[in-house]
Amino acid sequence: MSSSFSTNASVASADYYLDGPRLLADIGGTNARFALERAPGQIDTIQTLRCADFAEFALAVEAYIAANVTSSAGNQQSTIRHAAIAIANPVHGDEIKMTNHHWAFSIETTRRRLQLDTLLVVNDFTALSMALPHLEHEHCVQVGGGKSLAGGVIGLVGAGTGLGVGGLIPTEGRWIALGSEGGHVSFAPGDAREAAILAYCWRTFPHVSAERLVSGPGIEMTYRALADMHGNANPEPLHTAQIVERALAETDPICVETLECFCSMLGTVAADVAVTLGTLGGIYIGGGVVPRLGEYFASSPFRTRFESKGRFGEYTAKIPTYIITAPYPAFVGVAAILAEHLGGGNATPLLERIRKARPQFSPAEQKVASLILAHPRAVMSEPISEIARRADVSQPTVIRFCRTMGCQGLADFKLKLASGVSGTVPVAHSQVHVGDSSLDVGVKVVDNTISAMLEVRDNLNADTLSKVIDILSQAARIEFYGFGSCGLVAEDAQQKFFRLGIASSAYTDPQLQEISAAMLKSTDVAVIISNSGRLRHLAPAVEVAVNSGATIIALAPSNSQLAKRADFTLAVEHDEGSNMHIPMVSRILLLLLIDVLAVGVAMKRSSPFAEMQRQAKRGILAHVAAIAGDTASDKVAAKEDAAGAVSSNVISHTK
């Protein structure tokens, strides 16, 4: 099947994308639909392939491209640089494993295999949400009254194999899709009949979600419950399509009643979403069930139930409800997501600009361009001398090339290149597999580390971090305990804090840890470092440190044994994997936290308030020295000056 359609973002043919058509896909458990977007909003060459006909997802993509992506001359393949895929599956990180089909793939590996600059993969309901602002009026049918508020929040409910719930929130001229699992809220009956249906479901399920009844499979469940209520414990086994067919033909009273219940219950769900999100922009109904009901849905109990909201009945009555009738709304959504990712409209990434302009470069600049196109990640990390050597050009040629591309110099060029290259790769954990190339291993290790660092950043507790820095700044002595790779972190921490003028030690032997912990005082701090958080060899030292009255700070997983014994915990949540014996990433995360603490303490100790404290301390000691006739104040002042100088040096280095 091949067809085309346009959205309200369509433009004249002169505005076709300069970097070629964009590949769009809508992947379900049974079918994989593909299309090309040749200009903003202009989607055509739609084809549906059976998932079962292909062993891998990439094979289906390659089959579509081979059959449909040709140049205007018709005898040479065009190049697809950017693609976006909506998939009926949760999307978390790089690895995709479909729940209703056997396909499993890595987004980044697939991107490289298909030679794409960009490959975005999003949940299909997220794509449907993002399609709403771009649909034509003829692709939506209003049911009931109400008028949408321009710029208002939009709600989305989709009944199909499951029950999808989502929303769109306007902000600064763009829309943000609200991810939700609202279909799994507890089912709320709207009348006695629905309460009886709920009671029937409770015989089998301890928890009955809205999705259990307001969905395609839910229609079958409702049919069986109603038959049971009417005294027929063993009704004719009917599938959803058969129930709907008989209901619309009015040939089976139980089927008619089932469809009435479905529409009423959907009205309750839609109203709940409306009042929860404040969807003054309207509620849209998608999914595979409602559009197949045709004119029946408009006269069904749906809208009456939607407005039956008690004290908020007037509120929901003002909110319009629409049925999405667009043939392929997911394509519209992923096209919008891809356009925003690439900067909107005809924004062309740097690599594509280089590819297009390469014939116009001088021979020397073409060498630089070829190197960058072949090894963009390597160029981002190499100095100008190495780039020039590998391209076989002079260093001024490299600078001239960067300026030709509109950049101020090599540093500016690398920033723009990194933005373009990194933007195509989800910064998330991806497993290293046997058989990966050296480059694949390198990219995955770096991406995994970046992902974990960002997670630590996002999960930092501001209050805990502030308290820990205060405690370390005021500590008379700090001791760092760790084993193995964590022992290396402890030694690194000891060096950093000793340079700040703080008495500190690092111990990696359990006996020495226990002996030293026994000498700690209430003014001291013990920093216990562990990537697992299991006490084991650390237990004796931790217990002794606790009994000594010292403050215990843990750098470990938040729910670990160590965290439960510590006074404060800075969490490092990273699972290296059961097949890994070298804590690579967690070691980097622990070192990162040590750097955060060291800089924070350095800032604290060099603050104006800290300087006032030092001056006051000097004044008191000077007074004591004048009475005692010794030079204690001179010694302390020298020590304080040295610590302040080291702190200033650390801060200057971090800037």
From TrEMBL:
<comment type="similarity">
    <text>Belongs to the bacterial glucokinase family.</text>
</comment>
<feature type="domain" description="HTH rpiR-type">
    <location>
        <begin position="348"/>
        <end position="424"/>
    </location>
</feature>
<dbReference type="GO" id="GO:0005829">
    <property type="term" value="C:cytosol"/>
</dbReference>
<dbReference type="GO" id="GO:0003677">
    <property type="term" value="F:DNA binding"/>
</dbReference>
<dbReference type="InterPro" id="IPR035472">
    <property type="entry name" value="RpiR-like_SIS"/>
</dbReference>
<dbReference type="InterPro" id="IPR046348">
    <property type="entry name" value="SIS_dom_sf"/>
</dbReference>
<keyword id="KW-0418">Kinase</keyword>
<dbReference type="Pfam" id="PF02685">
    <property type="entry name" value="Glucokinase"/>
</dbReference>
<dbReference type="InterPro" id="IPR000281">
    <property type="entry name" value="HTH_RpiR"/>
</dbReference>
<keyword id="KW-0808">Transferase</keyword>
<protein>
    <recommendedName>
        <fullName>Glucokinase</fullName>
        <ecNumber>2.7.1.2</ecNumber>
    </recommendedName>
</protein>
<dbReference type="InterPro" id="IPR043129">
    <property type="entry name" value="ATPase_NBD"/>
</dbReference>
<dbReference type="InterPro" id="IPR050201">
    <property type="entry name" value="Bacterial_glucokinase"/>
</dbReference>
<keyword id="KW-0805">Transcription regulation</keyword>
<feature type="binding site">
    <location>
        <begin position="25"/>
        <end position="30"/>
    </location>
    <ligand>
        <name>ATP</name>
    </ligand>
</feature>
<dbReference type="InterPro" id="IPR001347">
    <property type="entry name" value="SIS_dom"/>
</dbReference>
<dbReference type="GO" id="GO:0006096">
    <property type="term" value="P:glycolytic process"/>
</dbReference>
<dbReference type="GO" id="GO:0004340">
    <property type="term" value="F:glucokinase activity"/>
</dbReference>
<dbReference type="InterPro" id="IPR036388">
    <property type="entry name" value="WH-like_DNA-bd_sf"/>
</dbReference>
<dbReference type="GO" id="GO:0005524">
    <property type="term" value="F:ATP binding"/>
</dbReference>
<keyword id="KW-0511">Multifunctional enzyme</keyword>
<feature type="domain" description="SIS">
    <location>
        <begin position="468"/>
        <end position="607"/>
    </location>
</feature>
<dbReference type="Pfam" id="PF01418">
    <property type="entry name" value="HTH_6"/>
</dbReference>
<comment type="similarity">
    <text>In the N-terminal section; belongs to the bacterial glucokinase family.</text>
</comment>
<dbReference type="GO" id="GO:0005536">
    <property type="term" value="F:D-glucose binding"/>
</dbReference>
<keyword id="KW-0804">Transcription</keyword>
<keyword id="KW-0324">Glycolysis</keyword>
<dbReference type="InterPro" id="IPR009057">
    <property type="entry name" value="Homeodomain-like_sf"/>
</dbReference>
<keyword id="KW-0547">Nucleotide-binding</keyword>
<keyword id="KW-0067">ATP-binding</keyword>
<dbReference type="GO" id="GO:0003700">
    <property type="term" value="F:DNA-binding transcription factor activity"/>
</dbReference>
<dbReference type="Pfam" id="PF01380">
    <property type="entry name" value="SIS"/>
</dbReference>
<keyword id="KW-0963">Cytoplasm</keyword>
<dbReference type="InterPro" id="IPR003836">
    <property type="entry name" value="Glucokinase"/>
</dbReference>
<keyword id="KW-0238">DNA-binding</keyword>
